[in-house]
Amino acid sequence: MSDDLKKLIIDYVKKEYLDDDSEEIDESTQLISSGIVDSFSMVALKTFLEKKFQISIPDEKATTEAFDSVNNMINLLKEFNVA
Amino acid sequence: MAYSNKARDFFSNELKNINTAGTFKEERYIESPQGANINVEFPVGAKPKEVLNFCANNYLGLSSHPEVIEAAHQGLNERGYGMSSVRFICGTQDIHKELETKLTKFLGTEDTILFPSCMDANAGVFDVVLDKEDAMISDRLVHASIVDGMRLCKAQLYNYKHSNMDHLEEKLKETQNLRLRMIITDGVFSMDGDIAKLDEICDLAEKYDAMVMVDDSHATGFMGKNGRGTHEHCGVIGRIDIITTTLGKALGGASGGCVSGRKEIVDLCRQRARPYLFSNTMPPVIVAAANKVIDLISKTTDRRDKLEKNTKYFRDKMTAAGFDIREGVHPIVPIMLYNAKLAQDMARDLYEEGIYVIGFSFPVVPKGQARIRVQVSAAHEKEHLDKAIAAFTKIGAKYQILGKKKDEIIAQYGY
Ligand SMILES: Cc1ncc(COP(=O)(O)O)c(C=O)c1O
């Protein structure tokens, strides 16, 4: 499950945020602090996870840290029992 | 009073962090009117130095134009200094209405409403026209004031990769079941000087039944044959539903902004836009001068033609000198250096040579894309451009980057 989830999120980030298909990211790549995803576009990432897992992530949990890597996102999803 | 040591320490620490991150911004004091030649006191306390200004948004050179200054004087004499009111109470003079009418005609739209600034126009407009059931689909590199405006609006947010029409189309498909949708973009993007593909955007908008909003702050007055803006440049006059723009750049450079576009949207802004309703009206002096600016640029295209010529000259010569510049036709000319420190060092050396330019790096531009952003103006004469090109060439040689492409510069300096 966790590997599938990892792949799902990585694929989504690649498709949505990387311009060049040759760029690679993995589950620990910093996304927001490195500038790959800007903090405003993060809203779309949050919406994607919410729709996909039919959850609602409250603002206080939707920090830039919680979304800074695929691993962090998976940890966040664990709190909702979907990872 | 409870400004305790706790609060003071907290803020001091924030400032320290900004400093450590290397993003601390300092003001430079200019002791002359805005123009091609300015006197700058920098660092604070230093003897003022005469430099050529290549970092102002004074695209048409109208910031200190004698006829504009004269019109401002006349406005001051005939309509006074302040209005002490928001627009709808007692802050609308005949000249405010005149300016709105002139802007409508110049931009080729249905109607126009003035705002205290374009920042305010962008902050107010989305919340006026869109709600929870609607979607905002924005280019990912839109200006910060649009980001703020979208944050203040309840509509669902989608964004597409910069100028990527396939990605935009995907988002339009994804949002097809929503009530109203708006595609949101800058006409010209301020860090790269690249131009939105408004013709393709309008085609997609028609195909998928979405509105189009363009912030044309870096285009109004000079892009397109008559200087109407990016919509003229791209051949889509009449197809843009909302244009926001500023009077703070090419159009005299004082302050003020507007929302121009579909009549119903402008009417709704007069009823609901919070920065219009709750912030003071534009001062008569500025309105009077702005009216003169629109008259000047409606009468002749000489200034925008000169700007176009200057831009081409500068871009051609800099490319020939061996700089890696982003291709384009806009007076924003990014000299790509990739490394943040290199951009800072070169900007400092150029200042010593009498050329005032600024280095930009992360987070203002993406990581590894540091640059010096040059802005050409119609106020520049050929000898100004030649002096800047010579100084750039001298400093470029010092840092051994002439004739080098991205990979070579990065190999030399890293990023
Ligand atoms: C694209 C863009 N929009 C809006 C603004 C803000 O305009 P104003 O100075 O009128 O608030 C700017 C100015 O920096 C800008 O570059």
What does it look like?
Chain A is an all-alpha fold and 83 residues long. Chain A has a single domain (2-17, 26-78), classed as Non-ribosomal Peptide Synthetase Peptidyl Carrier Protein, Chain A (Orthogonal Bundle), CATH 1.10.1200.10. Chain A has helices at residues 2-17, 42-53, 70-78. The model of chain A has no long low-confidence stretch (mean pLDDT 87). Chain B is α/β, with parallel strands linked by helices. Chain B has 2 domains: 24-53 and 302-413, Alpha-Beta Complex (Aspartate Aminotransferase, domain 1), CATH 3.90.1150; 66-299, Type I PLP-dependent aspartate aminotransferase-like (Major domain) (Aspartate Aminotransferase, domain 2, 3-Layer(aba) Sandwich). Chain B contains 16 helices and 14 strands. In chain B, the strands form 3 sheets. A 7-stranded mixed β-sheet of chain B has the order 4-10-9-8-7-5-6, sandwiched between helices. In chain B, strands 1-2-3-12 form a 4-stranded mixed β-sheet. The longest helix of chain B is centred in the C-terminal third of the chain and has 19 residues, at 302-320. Chain B is globular, with a radius of gyration of 22 Å. In chain B, 49% of the residues are buried. The model of chain B has no long low-confidence stretch (mean pLDDT 96). The interface between A and B is medium-sized, with 11 and 15 residues. The structure holds pyridoxal-5'-phosphate (PLP). Pyridoxal-5'-phosphate is lined by residues 117-119, 122, 143, 145, 186, 190, 215, 217-218, 246, 248, 257 of chain B. Chain B: Homodimer. Chain B: Residues 50-391 form the Aminotransferase class I/classII large domain. Chain B: The modification N6-(pyridoxal phosphate)lysine is found at residue 249. Chain B: One of its GO terms (cellular component) is cytoplasm. Chain B: Catalyzes the cleavage of 2-amino-3-ketobutyrate to glycine and acetyl-CoA.
